[in-house]
Amino acid sequence: MNLSQLYYFAKLSEMQHYANAAKELYITQPSLSHAIKSLEAELGAPLFEREGRRMKLTPLGRAFAEHVKRGLREIDKGVALAQEYNGKLSGTVNIGSIYTVQGDYLPMLLRDYHAQYGQTVKFNLFQGFSTPLVEALERDEYDVAFTAKVPNKPDLCFEHVVSHQLVAFVAPSNPIAHLKSVSLGDLRGRLVYTYRRGTPIGENVNDALEEFGVSAVQEYEDEISLGGMVQADPRAVGLATLSIGLKSFSDIVIIPIEDIPQDFHRIYMVYKRDAFRSRAVESFIEFTSDYVPPKGAIPSTGTFS
Questions:
Q1: How far apart are alpha carbons 142 and 236 in whole angstroms?
Q2: Cα→Cα distances 195→148, 220, 300, Å
Q3: CA gap 226, 240 in Å, rounded
Q4: By CB count within 10 A, which of 34, 133, 152, 230 is most buried?
Q5: For residue range 13-39, what is the model confidence (pLDDT) as tens digits?
Q6: Is residue 296 part of a domain?
Q7: Which pLDDT does position 147 carry in this prediction?
Q8: pTM
Q9: In 3D, which of 111, 223, 87 has the Cα closest to residue 165?
Q10: Is the per-residue pLDDT at 177 higher than 90?
Q11: 169, 175, 96: which is closest to 135 by C-alpha?
């Protein structure tokens, strides 16, 4: 038994597909198959069983995988600590993110991470919507994702990192543009545009609308689409999170909502609970868990312009 076999086993236990695992490991499928068979022969028991075109861990395989992954994480940490001692922490972190944190929170986070760890860790950034990003994380396309909470994902960790405020916004000529704040109930009977249902933010807004008896046109994916609709129709009221998307519109009036909590839309750092991670990824997760953005960095009705 050698370290390469354990790395190969850990990857195959995650992906449960020989061809995909071999591609991730940059080896041929026969080489991976030979390594796993040799490991099973040495242990004297099968670690995988075939289920259609995929490989499924046996009960022994599941128990063995838990210990192997824990051991590999510790080995990787030891190697990385030695590299850190010599100023050589390196690697790549693949991040999937909703765009609403890409204009403020995420750039500051990466800037401050580099300030502490240097420039040798590289980041690949990808943009998307919360549910597809989480699904891609489950397929190992990302190491970490920044998304809204997606339910029924017991194998993932969701750590709250930042929140965005829900606001109303209107054209300057709208009858409520002069108000310092509104209640959500004040919007009954008005033409309201907001997010489509089926997305985490859309479902959260829908719950609030139902609570206050407000009807809305729920058809839009993002703040830029909503801003465009409000800009095109002075009668309309938009409901959206206060984030970088609304900064595209200089001729809208943003109105705080009195009866909605400031942390209405909570955004999370998401990662797999038991996945094998490089020290670069581990250090980024640890840094992000403790990170506090500078005061005034996240948009609010007191700072947004």
A1: 38
A2: 14, 5, 19
A3: 8
A4: 230
A5: 988 899 988 988 889 999 999 999 999
A6: no
A7: 95
A8: 0.68
A9: 223
A10: yes
A11: 96
- Give CA 159 to chain center in angstroms: 10
Residue 251's pLDDT is 87
* Helix-helix angle 29-43:3-15, to 10 degrees: 110
CA-to-CA dists, residue 78 to 84, 89, 279, angstroms: 10, 11, 9
Amino acid in the structure at residue 53 = R
What φ, ψ does residue 261 adopt, rounded to 5°? -60, 150
User: Is there a single domain that holds both residue 157 and residue 275?
Assistant: yes
Short-list 114, 117, 237, 220, CA closest to 168: 237
Task: Examine the domain organization and report whether 139 and 119 are in the same domain.
Answer: yes
- The residue range of the domain holding 216 is 166-256
**Which pair of tokens denotes residue 115?**
């300030």
Q: What is the CATH number for 40?
A: 1.10.10.10
Instruction: Looking at the structure, tell me whether residues 269 and 157 fall in a common domain.
Output: yes
The confidence score (pLDDT) of residue 187 equals 95
Q: What interhelical angle do 105-117 and 279-290 show, nearest 10?
A: 120
DSSP state of 185: G
The mean predicted confidence, pLDDT, of the chain is 89
E runs forming strands in 12-90: 48-51, 54-57
Domain membership flag for residue 222: yes
Structural domains of the chain, count: 3
* 280 and 205 fall within a common domain: no
* Token pair in block for residue 99: 């765009």
Same domain, 96 and 25: no
Question: Higher confidence at residue 53 or residue 227?
Answer: 227
| C-beta separation of 144 from 281 below 8 A | yes
Question: Does residue 305 form part of some domain?
Answer: no
Task: Give the pLDDT confidence score for residue 78 in this predicted structure.
Answer: 77
User: Residues 67, 107: one domain?
Assistant: no
pLDDT (0 to 100) of residue 275: 79
pLDDT digits (tens, 9 = 90+) for 216-227: 999 998 899 999
Output the six-digit token pair for 34. Answer: 């030979």
